[in-house]
Amino acid sequence: MSSFHWEENISLQYYNTFKIQVIARYVVRIQNKSLDKLIKSPLFQTHVILGGGSNLLFVEKSYDGVFLKNKILGIEPISRAHTHTSLKVGGGVTWGSLVDYCLTHNLGGIENLSFIPGTVGAAPIQNIGAYGVELSDVLESVEIVDLMDGKTRTMTRAECQSGLPMLLTID
C-alpha cells in the first residue's frame, strides 16, 4: 500500500470546524511514515499539516499548496505494568477516540482531557490540557518524520517542549 494518496482540488469544508468552503490545490492523506517520495515531490514546496481543523480559519477561497492529512491510525498497548500501561497511538487518531479507548480499557490518566477536539498527532504540539491534567503528564515519547529529510526518529518528552511542526505518531 502506498504511504500517501494525492487528491486534487478538494473542498476543505469538512476538514475545518467552521465549515468554511475553501478549495485546496492538493490534499495528501498520509497512511504511514514512509514519506520520501512525497518530500521529494516538487509539489511539496508549500504545505500545511491538517489535524482536526479546529485551529484553522480560512480567509481565502483557495489554497495553492498541499494540505497533509494524517491518517495514521491505530491504538496498541506496547507494555503493561501494575502502575501504568504504555500505548502506541497513530497521529491520525482523534483525541476523543483515544480517551474513549482508555476509558473502555480502564486506563486512567487522560479522562480529564475528554472532548478536546483534534488529533493525537497535534496533541504534543499543543500540549493539550484541562482540569489540572496536561498531555505532558503522561507523554513518554513521540515518533516523528522530519519533513525536511524524511527520516524517522523518536523524541523524548523533554525534546517535545519545542513543539516542532512535524507529522507525529505518539508512542
Automatic annotation (TrEMBL):
Lineage top rank: taxon: Eukaryota
One BP term from GO: cell wall organization
SUPFAM superfamilies: FAD-binding/transporter-associated domain-like (SSF56176)
Alphabetized GO MF terms: FAD binding; UDP-N-acetylmuramate dehydrogenase activity
Pfam families xref list: FAD_binding_4
Residues covered by the FAD-binding PCMH-type domain: 19-171
A Gene Ontology cellular-component term: cytosol
PANTHER family: UDP-N-ACETYLENOLPYRUVOYLGLUCOSAMINE REDUCTASE
Protein name, UniProt field: FAD-binding PCMH-type domain-containing protein
Organism taxonomic ancestry: Eukaryota, Fungi, Dikarya, Ascomycota, Pezizomycotina
